[in-house]
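User: Before I run my own analysis I want an independent prediction to cross-check against. Here's the chain; please return only the C-alpha cells and, at the end, one sentence I can use as a sanity check.
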Amino acid sequence: MRRLDRCYHALGSGSEAAMQRFFESYPRPLHVILNVGWNSYFAIPQLQFGADYRADFVVMSAHSGVWIATFIELESPRARLYLRDGTESRSLRTAIRQLKDWARWVEKDRTRLVEALQRGIRLANAKGIEIEENPVAMGAGGLFDPETVILHEYAVVIGRSRELTKEDNARRSLEHRGPLGIRIVTYDRVIETLQRDLRGLREVRNARLAHLRRWKE
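Assistant: C-alpha cells:
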C-alpha cells in the first residue's frame, strides 16, 4: 500500500493511535511541516519526560547555532477545532493546556530535558529508528554538548481544514503569535506533503524515462 493510501486509511479510522503508527513508520510529513531548522532534523517518537508527560513526537532541528525541539501532540483527525460560537473545542482546549504544562516542565531545567532526549533517542534506536547518540548539526554542534543551546516550540496536529472558517484560521494564527507560539496544524497539511512527494517522484521517474528514450534513439 502506498504511503498516501496508508495515510488515508489511518485518517479514516479517526484514531490517534493509527496516526502515531503511520508517523512512526514515515515521519517525513512531520519533518517538513514542523521542523524549524534547515540543516538537520529527525523525529523522536513517544518521548517520555518527567513522571507524567509524554509527547507523541519531538522533532529536532537545527540552524544558526542552536537546536530546536518541537513538541507535538496528536489529536484525532475527526476532532473539531472550534465550536460554532468560535470557542475552542474540548479536544483543542485540552491539547493546548497539555502543551502549556509541557512548556513549564521543559523551561525549568535544561539538564532534565537533555536526559529525556537522550533516553528518547536510545529507545528510538531500540525500535530500529536510526538516530546518532549525539547528533551533530552544522553550526549548532552536538545536540548534547554542554554549550549547545536548545530552544523549544510546541504544536498540535488535529482535525481537518475543511471544517475551518476564515475566522477559525485567524484564531489559529493568533495562538501561533501567542507567548508559546503554539502551532495548530490540521491533517490536511500531512496529505498535501505526501501529495507533493508523490508528484515529485513522478516527475523524477518521467524525466528518467525521457532520458532513457533519448539515449535509445
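Sanity check: The first strand starts at residue 40 and ends at 49.
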